[in-house]
Amino acid sequence: MDIKPLLKITLVFTLCVIMMGAYTRLSDAGLGCPDWPGCYGMVKVPTASHELTAVKDAFPEHTVEADKAWLEMIHRYIAGALGLMVLAILIMSLRKADAPKKLPMFIAALIVFQAVLGMWTVTMKLMPIVVMSHLIGGFALFSLLLLLYLRSKPLRIPGGDAPARKLSTLALMCIGVLLLQIVLGGWTSSNYAALACTSLPICEGNWVDNLNFSSAFSPFQGDHPSYEYGVLDYSARMTIHVAHRIGAIITAAMLLFLAFRLVTKALSSTIRNAAWLLAVLVVLQVILGISNVVLHLPLGIAVSHNAGAALLLLTLVFINYALWRKA
Predict the structure, then answer these.
(1) Cβ(268)–Cβ(161) under 8 Å?
(2) Is the pLDDT of residue 1 over 90?
(3) Long-range residue pairs from 133-140, CB within 8 A, at least 24 positions apart, any chain
């Protein structure tokens, strides 16, 4: 049985999980269910009167917010379905003699670790380092699934495109910068710093004198009953936001430069088309980022900004694969 159709479906499903995770987080529904993997000890959100009575006895300190709880449980349901798809990919890869083995096994291990991070996200009450790691794990899973798909479908570029290959080091630098920017974005979101600055281009007021890097980027922020809505003071959140904003400028400039160089130098239409896609995605991502600031983080735009980052990463993974692969 051909594994490529399942990989395509899994890639789409992974993007859906990333977007649903962002929607859940941005809707402040990350603790909609205070336990894991169920919700108040049940496989679905308790809504019946007898279920609510049982919840009151077992979780006297909590009140069921059905809308937030359903968001959290739907995210868990589709993440569980994604886990089953990855398991199917692993089984098919192990059974097929000429299929890659190590990469599917690593992907399967990663999704198990993602499940653990999902549990810790709840049990550690949205601790930022855990929330950010969970987000980065989703992006890593997305990228590795694409890499597995590319390895299962050999990429053929007539002549090898030597002029484009000369840009392989630049492409690798760009994916490194993008990964750092995604980490900064995850840290911004998990510390509720997305609205710490509400003016352009960097931040309002005398922001330079208020930078506080030691507090802003400390991975552990002390013991708190919950990290929901953030525990850092304004200066730390502002510092995180400014770092993400400056990182966005650097990242956009580098990615657009790479896209320009590939469009003008590449001989292959495959690589040129990927470069054009990269440029379009960068412009859209910048527009979405500015819209988040100007419109004060509307939910739809904020979720689209997460999806845009994932698609940018996928495009750069493809470009690097095309430039670094054996001719």
Answers:
(1) yes
(2) no
(3) 134/21, 135/21, 135/186, 135/189, 135/190, 136/182, 136/183, 136/186, 137/110, 137/113, 138/14, 138/17, 138/18, 138/21, 138/114, 138/310, 139/18, 139/182, 139/309, 139/310, 139/313, 140/110
Mean pLDDT of 35-46: 92
In this predicted structure, what is the pLDDT of residue 325?
Answer: 83
Give the number of other CB atoms < 10 A from CB of residue 5.
9
Is 72 one of the annotated active-site residues of the chain? yes
Find, among 35, 36, 21, 32, the residue nearest to 70 by Cα.
32
* Of 153, 154, 157, residue with least CA distance to 6: 153
Alpha helices, DSSP H, located in the chain: 4-26, 49-58, 66-95, 102-123, 128-152, 162-165, 168-190, 213-216, 234-265, 269-294, 299-324
User: CB within 8 A of 291, min separation 6: which ones?
Assistant: 298, 301
Flag whether the pTM goes above 0.85: yes
Nearest to 121 by CA among 15, 36, 231: 36
pLDDT over threshold 80, residue 326: no
* Over residues 146-170, mean pLDDT: 88
Average pLDDT over residues 78-96: 94
The active-site residue out of 61, 65, 72, 204 is 72
Band of pLDDT at residue 327, cut at 50, 70 and 90: low
Residue 327 contacts by C-beta under 8 Å, 6 or more apart in sequence? 160
